[in-house]
Specification:
- A 7-stranded antiparallel sheet has the order 1-7-6-5-4-3-2.
- Strand 6 and strand 7 form a beta hairpin.
- The protein is built from 3 helices and 7 strands.
- It is 25% helix and 39% strand.
- By secondary structure, the protein is an alpha+beta fold.
């Protein structure tokens, strides 16, 4: 098992970033086609039709958002900056060795989509179920 760590700098405030991570509407703008929440569970629906029920493990407004994600631990840590922006650190623990390369690259796609959505109010994804990660498209 391996751990992935990525950081991204956002010009948006921790409050704004947290709202994208912690709400169904926010997650649907950058992460999954749908990511509805009920009873502390997020039901993810991805462009390729894959689904996953993810348990929210910790949620500290404007600071931390942790969840079980495909049987691994994902932590989003938000650090407020003097310029009003936010540094986000993503840590994904317990990634199987044989999935590391794909998951490592996948988080880059998710975090860059987060940056586009939060800082620039745009969606970089193609939303085409025939042009997904499975077919080699990174803009899914």
């Amino acid at each position: 098992m391996k751990t992935i760590t990525w950081k991204v700098h956002l010009k948006s405030s921790p409050k704004t970033v947290f709202s994208f991570l912690s709400t169904s509407e926010g997650r649907a703008k950058f992460w999954a086609e749908k990511a509805t929440e009920e009873d502390n569970m997020v039901h993810f629906v991805f462009p390729n039709g894959q689904t996953y029920n993810s348990r929210i493990l910790k949620s500290v407004p404007n600071q931390k958002f942790y969840l079980d994600y495909f049987e691994s631990l994902v932590r989003f840590e938000l650090e407020p900056l003097d310029d009003g922006g936010t540094d986000v650190t993503l840590i994904n623990e317990n990634v199987p060795d044989d999935e590391f390369n794909e998951v490592h690259a996948g988080w880059v796609s998710v975090l860059m989509n987060l940056k586009a959505a939060v800082d620039f109010q745009c969606d970089l994804r193609n939303h085409n179920p025939k042009k997904t990660w499975d077919q080699g498209y990174l803009d899914n």
